[in-house]
Amino acid sequence: MSKTVGIIGLGLLGGSLALALKAYTDYEVVGYARRQEICDMALADKAVSKAWTNVDDVIRESDIVVFALPPETNAKFFAEKAHLFTSGQIVTDVSSAKDDFVASVYQHIPDGVIFVSTHPMAGSEKGGYEVVTKDLFQKMGWIVLDDPEASCYDAAVADELANMGQSIGSRIERVQMKDHDAFLAMVSHMPHLMASIMTVVVGGDELGEFRMRLSAGGFRDSTRTAGGLPSMWKEIIFGNRKNVLQSLELMEQEVNHVRQLLARDDDGAAIEEYLGRAKQIRERLPYLTGQVNDANLE
Amino acid sequence: MSKTVGIIGLGLLGGSLALALKAYTDYEVVGYARRQEICDMALADKAVSKAWTNVDDVIRESDIVVFALPPETNAKFFAEKAHLFTSGQIVTDVSSAKDDFVASVYQHIPDGVIFVSTHPMAGSEKGGYEVVTKDLFQKMGWIVLDDPEASCYDAAVADELANMGQSIGSRIERVQMKDHDAFLAMVSHMPHLMASIMTVVVGGDELGEFRMRLSAGGFRDSTRTAGGLPSMWKEIIFGNRKNVLQSLELMEQEVNHVRQLLARDDDGAAIEEYLGRAKQIRERLPYLTGQVNDANLE
After folding, report:
1. Are residues A65 and A115 in the same domain?
2. Between chain A's N and C termini, which has fewer beta carbons within 10 Å?
3. Between A100 and A206, where is the model more confident?
4. Are B174 and B196 within one domain?
5. Which residue intervals define the domain Prephenate/arogenate dehydrogenase in the entry (chains A, B) (predicted)?
6. CA angle (A94, A199, A238) in 5-degree steps
């Protein structure tokens, strides 16, 4: 008989994971949502075979419990519900910042309960069950966080969760738990903040609206993630702020460095070299991530 | 008999403009390219009815001469060829930074020759005739630069060039010449440099490649323009460096400001408010520019 996956939180990630598991695996899927109407929508879509507005039932009926709420909320929920887990049950999560949740798990997890964290690198600036899709994970990275020192970690379960990601179309990456948040601050959380910063600098003053009328695809794409949900990204960024602050400091230093290159009276030789170096690095990205580098309009 | 438009430079912008004018207007179109093979490709596509590797012929046969080479090159060419223009002929350009070219025109333009500058806000990180498309200008902004103080400026010609942009699908914006480069530094040139800066910070060290494997659509889109042609963008950015340096300084100050907000022990209240403000500003963008704000994956 196939295992049951219980997904706590049927937003964009949790709801899409439910649809993907139904479509591409033989896992049984059940879920929790705060609002009954979301449970009803997920049931109507057959994303889940059962859904509750009560976490306890999900934990009771699942072999693998996936926490798919924002990091702080995941952490609070786990602290409250840890005692409900029984030996051999598997706990995982899909959030973008790990500090809060992992600390809560390591503090409260009962003996014999297994915890391996994952991070599917998918999402959108739009959130909620309304935008779920079974193909959200196709071709995206799916990070499995290895933490051999942790007593609740199990290598076989880590492989099982890696296979789960692969079966719904993701590219698997293995990262040491202790390194994850620093990496993610650099590739996701800081870039998200930079999009907001650029939006405020360019569009935030009295000339901002007219100025933005003169923008094109470059500004549009550079600032896209500034449309993300503030409440969710606040939890992700603030939950990882030590690393995000370091990444922002690196950006501040590099902007200053580039200002000095641009100030040189060298007919732009230093800037052209810098642009060339960045281009070389950027061109490796599609091959590293397997994503097509769409030639959107500038 | 319809007017002849001579396009100097059949790269992405010039070549696409030729195709668009052929497709959507009754202008006669001729062109210049440095290499004969590009002339042959443009002739084969019927983008132009005649093409030369010699600028003189284009100037001789055109009512409207469009400089579509990089800004510095446009400036050099105009200085060399200005004497070939005759009274009543119209000179325009389509480049992203105006200082060099406009200075050259105002210095060398013969009496009676009319100059009105335009800036179609279209392009791509890929350049060259190989990527031209007749619909490059659809739904994009087309700036007409008004400069009533200049003796070579003509309001009726400015309207004619605005109509040209509208007829190939663009949204017309009118900007005072003296304001153009400062606006463009903010909405295009600085964002382009920021994409390169973020690419170097995130992907430029020994951990860069592994780090980039963990990135998703947010980093991909934020850094897309770092794939642009260094030689071309050097001319644009260095040609506008006074304004670009000011924009970079504003970014550096704002990054520092946000670091201070994030450092507050306020459970992220200040950061959430900041993200909310940026989201509000960003959400005006698609409506302002008429561009579809694709919900690319995060």
Report:
1. yes
2. N
3. A206
4. no
5. 3-293
6. 35
Query: What residue numbers bound the domain in which A279 lies?
Result: 182-289
The percentage of chain A sitting over the pLDDT mark of 90, rounded to a whole number, equals: 85
Distance from CA of B167 to the nearest CA of A (A): 19
Integer distance in angstroms from the first to the last C-alpha of chain B? 52
Q: Which residues pair with B120 in a beta bridge?
A: B142
Is the residue at B54 inside a domain?
yes
- What residues in B contact A263, CB-CB < 8 Å? 241, 245
Flag whether pLDDT at B74 surpasses 50.
yes
- The mean per-residue pLDDT over the stretch A251-260 comes to 98
| CA angle A163–A165–A170, rounded 5-degree value | 120
**CATH assignment of the domain containing B207:** 1.10.3660.10
CATH, residue A115: 3.40.50.720
Task: Count structural domains, chain B.
Answer: 2
All residues of chain B having their beta carbon less than 8 Å from the beta carbon of residue A271 are 234, 237-238
Which residues of chain A does B283 touch, with a Cβ-Cβ cutoff of 8 Å?
227
Q: Considering B134, B160, B178, which residue would you say is the last residue of a domain? A: B178
Q: Alpha-carbon distance B99 to B181, whole Å? A: 8
Taking 80 as the threshold, does the pLDDT of residue B272 lie above it? Answer: yes
> How far is CA B32 from its chain centroid?
19
pTM: 0.85
Based on the fold, state whether residues A26 and A12 are members of the same structural domain.
yes
d(CA A4, CA B80): 76
User: Best residue in B133, B229, B233, B281 to probe A by mutation, most A CBs within 10 Å?
Assistant: B281
Claim to verify: residue B22 and residue B160 sit in the same structural domain:
yes
